[in-house]
Amino acid sequence: MYTDTHCHLDSLDAPPADAVADAQRAGVTTLITVGTDLASSAESVSIATAFAPVWAVVGIHPHNAIEATEAVLQRLSSLAGHPRVVGIGETGLDYFRDHSPRVRQEEAFREQIRLAKDHDKALVIHCRDAHVDVVRVLEDERPPARTIFHCFSGDNELVKRCTENGWYMSFAGNVTFRNAPELREAAAEAPIELLLTETDSPYLSPHPHRGTPNEPARVPLIAEELADLHGLSSWEMGRLTTENAHRAFAMDTGPVDGSHLT
Description:
eight-stranded parallel sheet, alpha/beta
């Protein structure tokens, strides 16, 4: 029993039906597909509506923050009301590529924090080379209790801040990379009850598949790495991180319909 808390089923080479089936054969029982703009957010809801193991997160990626107009945020708010939507994101700050002005990234980040609180949804954070400012904004806005650092890339100090605040830390394929000892050190320090697993597919394929398109079926490899760091079996880490995911995203068995897609 494994959970992929962050994938982009709309961006895979394989159709969502094939990716979901392959994941289930690998023991992945739950998948969360994540939007990065309005179009992909709507598509994520559509996919989650079509496949029972899949849930959706809707939001505007910091790369696309310039698109987070009032009208777009209102549309996101409508999508957030769908029963298959369990989070807002991925939102946050990205100072590595700076595809949107930093001031607009922060404005969009703050708006989506408020949206997550308004709808009682989990907040899914993208953070790259911006940890200090992300924490500053979070502490200023007082984020929802269920906050997730997607593709965690921080150090032991950020692990400490997340632990103090009860923020979840989701690890992707880069935790398996041979040139990432500091990330594995951070993962080893993270409390088990705040650990999550993800693929971020089609990106960040784990070792030994690094350099190839990623897929949700590979999430057991991330769980295995985390299990080794915490002295558990892969199966036990899969069970624990699945329990964490259901708690972090408050997943239930609400009705599946398309009423919020129009």
